[in-house]
Design goal:
5 strands; 5 helices; 179 residues; three-stranded antiparallel sheet; 42% helix; two-stranded antiparallel ribbon; mainly alpha; elongated; sequence-specific double-stranded DNA binding; zinc ion binding
Length: 179
């Protein structure tokens, strides 16, 4: 007896939304409300092995794991989250997270991100003068040239002006819709 395998372009998250155990299980429509089937079965296929023993075959790395119902699905979730590197890679790409090897440093974007951080967290413009902040940034990416306080102030002003234009456009659209 083979379980149906849902084909999807993006891997489904197998993280629990809260609690423990099989709280993220979904109802198996073919069985009605009698029994729930774990979402791990969207990433694994049930196969019969030697002596009619049930196994779970990973759809990513093809590893055979115990598929006996008595063992539950926790070990299968752990395999997907911890051991199966192909599942992790596919999940990361589905979420739009690029691998480190594809990372391209962008000084302009980094400066804008720093300006937004200064706005959002009320960091001082002279954060570049903080010795350990500079050491920290250098450890993350030595290519980032930490701007001086006047440059950060200018970047913050530029972000402010860009956001102000967006707000005015939104207010004009709302005003036009109300009249």
């Amino acid at each position: 007896m083979s379980a149906s395998h849902s084909e999807s372009s993006q891997p489904t998250s197998i993280y629990s939304s809260g609690g423990s155990g099989d709280s993220e299980d979904v109802t198996n429509q073919s069985r009605g409300n009698k029994r729930k089937q774990s979402v791990v079965w969207e990433h694994l296929t049930k196969v019969r092995g030697v002596n009619n023993v049930m196994h779970a075959k990973c759809n990513y790395c093809e590893k055979l794991l115990s598929g006996n119902a008595a063992y539950g699905t926790t070990h299968l979730k752990k395999h997907l989250n911890n051991a199966c590197s192909k599942f992790k890679l596919e999940r990361r790409s589905a979420l739009g997270v690029s691998p480190r090897s594809e990372f391209k440093f962008d000084q302009v974007k980094s400066r804008k991100d720093l300006a937004i951080a200064c706005i959002k967290h009320k960091y001082p413009f002279n954060i570049g003068n903080h010795e350990y902040f500079e050491i920290f940034l250098n450890g993350l990416n030595p290519n980032f040239k930490l701007p001086c306080r006047n440059t950060i102030r200018g970047d913050v002003s530029q972000v402010y002006e860009e956001e102000k234009v967006k707000v005015y456009k939104l207010l004009n659209v709302l005003r036009a819709n109300c009249l």
